[in-house]
Design goal:
alpha+beta
Length: about 80
Amino acid sequence: MINVLFFAQIRELLGTASLQVEASEQIATAAALREHLAATNDKWAQVLASDKLLVAVNQTLSNWHETIRDGDEVAFFPPVTGG
């Protein structure tokens, strides 16, 4: 299983903080996982379509081509600003 986490506004818009997705050959990258989740419904597609969305794999900021495997943790979150 892939443990998927959602943070900040992403979590609020989707109405969930986490879920688990069965690992498969079709979900081999962070981008493929995002596409898989976006297929859930129109709301998920809209929230996950943002080109500003960030992804972390196993608590490390990653790019969308990062390989994911069974047992990995993938987190989606909006850009972070500070001050």
